[in-house]
Each structure stands twice: as C-alpha cells, then as structure tokens.
Specification:
Blueprint lengths: L1 E3 L4 H9 L4 E3 L6 H8 L4 H17 L6 E11 L2 E3 L5 H11 L3 E12 L2 E14 L4 H11 L20 E5 L2 H5 L3 H11 L5
Parallel strand pairs: 1-2, 1-3
Antiparallel strand pairs: 3-4, 3-5, 5-6, 6-7
Length: 194
C-alpha cells in the first residue's frame, strides 16, 4: 500500500476519490529551513525539493514501501508566499494577489528505500480578479480559519473559486498535487493498485 507523506486533507481526498489505496503518515520536516537552503532557486525546484524531502523522511522508516511526497507553493510577481500565519496575513496576501496572476507550483515525488524513483512538477496560473476590501473581509468571514493551511489563501473546491477570473492548469494541481502525473507514474511502476 502506498504511503502518503502528508497530513493534507485534500491530498488524501484526491487519492481516496481516485481509488488509490494509501496510508497517510505526515512527514515532519523543517520546510522553511529547506527553502532557505535553496536560496533563489526557481519555485518548481523548491516544490520538488520539498516533495522529495517529505517522501524521503518517511521512506527511511518504511523499508520496501513506496512513499508519495507532495508540496505546493505560490508565487506572484516573483515573490513566494507561504501559508498565511493569521487572518490579517491572509488579507495582506489577498490584497497583493488582487488583479494579478498567481502561479501555483505543485510537485510530487515517489521514493522507495530512500531513493527517488519518480518526480514531477506542475504549474497552474490563476488570474485573480480585482478584490475590494469589502470582498476580502466577507470572504475571510466565510473562509477563515479553514484556509489557514492553504497556500494562496483559497480552497478552489469552496468559495476560493470566487477569487479568480481565469485559470490555466489542471484541477488536481490546484488542489495541491499533480494527480494525473502521479497516477501515470504509479501505472508505470506497477503500483497503481498499491
């Protein structure tokens, strides 16, 4: 059975809906330290490094098992954004995103016995509508604290869809994992029914 190195409810729900048997075991790594060590690396490389590190951390204690790590990050106009630390932080992020293109970088890695057997990045471009202060407050009244753990301050499957005018990229990448690429890799590795 596949191990999902994540505590993300959306990643678990994606795998469950796709019929991919898995066991969630959250990886506890210092994401900020890993990001700092990568300096000015491109966002897709940072997302890949985080996905790989999560999978490798769990793989070290799961001999012979296939481990899936995944991570997402948002960048807008060259600035990287993490999960908002507070409601005010979320409001600041939304003010910055207003009327701009938010790039969501998602990545996944499959690791067995500490070795990366597959990894891939994916990207979605989300064109944010102009957001008024009144909209931001109403939105956060409805969505906070549910979006506290969401990079980009939205859940696309909920009211977060109201933030966008146009989206380029697949739905699963936006949810936080390039599921179609993961399924293809599992098929190729012979582990789709894992």
């Amino acid at each position: 059975m596949l191990i999902l190195a994540s505590q993300s409810a959306s990643r678990r729900a994606m795998l469950e809906a796709a019929g991919i048997a898995h066991e969630p075991i959250p990886a506890h790594i210092d994401e900020r330290a890993l990001e700092a060590g990568l300096g000015d690396a491109p966002p897709e490389k940072i997302a890949l490094a985080l996905a790989r590190a999560k999978a490798q951390a769990i793989s070290a204690q799961a001999e012979g098992r296939l481990v899936l790590g995944s991570d997402s990050l948002v960048e807008c106009e060259g600035r990287r954004f993490d999960k908002p630390g507070s409601r005010e932080g979320a409001a600041e992020h939304l003010r910055f995103f207003s009327g701009k293109v938010m790039r969501l970088h998602s990545a996944a890695a499959l690791v067995r016995d500490g070795k990366v057997v597959w990894e891939a990045p994916a990207r979605a471009d989300l064109h944010v509508a102009p957001l008024s202060e009144a909209f931001i407050e109403t939105y956060l009244d409805a969505e906070w604290p549910a979006i506290a753990g969401c990079v980009g301050c939205f859940r696309i499957e909920a009211r977060g869809v109201q933030l966008f005018e146009h989206i380029e990229g697949d739905y699963f990448t936006i949810l936080g994992m390039p599921l179609l690429k993961v399924q293809a890799a599992l098929r190729q590795l012979g582990d789709l029914d894992a």
